[in-house]
């Protein structure tokens, strides 16, 4: 089976070609520079860029995979969640291709695809995926932070999620308060390596609560008031690094402790992590250390597959098709608020 997948849920236009569990091509066109001027993603601009880029990106993926359009056996696209006006571009483009070729089409939940990205190794789905089920998966990105119990392939349940600000949103918003350019998350990650994580004590929201939910709006507010009361610190490069390290430490500690606690409670032996914030070096190191201490197997999504990409969409779509799950109708619509069940 050769499958073409498209992803346009936010500000990356991506196309991938997947064959028998292997990613033949995964092309991503980022819009970071476009949105940096506005300090965040502007949906209308994102949609225009997707409209301009979706065909060239898809053609580039087919060229890289050395696949002709006539060889495509199925088509997939992100159906949700995401920015409605952005989702629409990739979803309708994929439906058009499927209609023109008279091939099966399937819409994919973006978050569900993240569950499988840690198992895409060396451009293919690893054979040991089934051996590490059940597992607890942390999905952490700009718009969502959640813990998911994966009981078996294509069978999962959400343990907890974001109440207000997600972890990635907190990184970007606190960075903006510090005067850092968008996206601030990667910059905080770099500066944190030069800072003291114990320099300033910020709250760890819900860390000791028994539930698996996340809330980072209180941390963001705490940083806002701290900067208001100590404006002189922002002129000191080392103090800014200390501030970045302290904010990152608070976010990471919440994510890691709640993940480990959920894994112990569910009696699994494997933890996975995916989503854009999983690129954060502090989080990757902390998860690795915590899993080793508690004897969990850890699978982290490759950094190239943490951010929005069509490879994970294609891998999941192919597995759903092989499991003979129903394909989508060509008149189906996007689901911007599609929650992971």
Q: What does it look like?
A:
By secondary structure, the chain is α/β, with parallel strands linked by helices. It folds into two domains: 2-117 and 308-322, 2-Layer Sandwich (Nucleotidyltransferase, domain 5), CATH 3.30.420.40; 131-304, ATPase, nucleotide binding domain (Nucleotidyltransferase, domain 5). It is 42% helix and 20% strand. The protein contains ten helices and twelve strands. It has helices spanning 32-36, 43-65, 84-101, 110-116, 167-177, 184-192, 217-229, 237-266, 281-293, 310-322, and strands at residues 2-7, 12-19, 22-30, 74-80, 105-109, 120-121, 124-125, 135-140, 145-152, 155-160, 270-274, 297-300. The strands form three sheets. A five-stranded mixed β-sheet has the order 3-2-1-4-5, with helices on both faces. Strands 10-9-8-11-12 form a five-stranded mixed β-sheet, sandwiched between helices. Strands 6-7 form a two-stranded antiparallel ribbon. The model has no long low-confidence stretch (mean pLDDT 94).
**Main β-sheet, in a few words?**
5 strands, mixed
Q: Tell me, rounded to a whole number, the average pLDDT.
A: 94
CATH class annotation of the largest domain: Alpha Beta
How far apart are the termini? 28 Å
CATH topology of the largest domain: Nucleotidyltransferase, domain 5
Q: Give me the count of strands.
A: 12
Task: Provide the β-strand percentage band.
Answer: 15-25%
Q: What string gives the helices and strands in order?
A: EEEHHEHEHEEEEEHHHHEHEH
**Can you tell me the overall shape?**
globular
Any idea what the CATH architecture of the largest domain is? 2-Layer Sandwich
> Strands of the biggest beta sheet: in what spatial order?
3-2-1-4-5
Helix content: 40-55%
CATH superfamily of the largest domain: ATPase, nucleotide binding domain
Give the helix/strand class: alpha/beta
How many domains in all? 2
- Tally of helical segments: 10
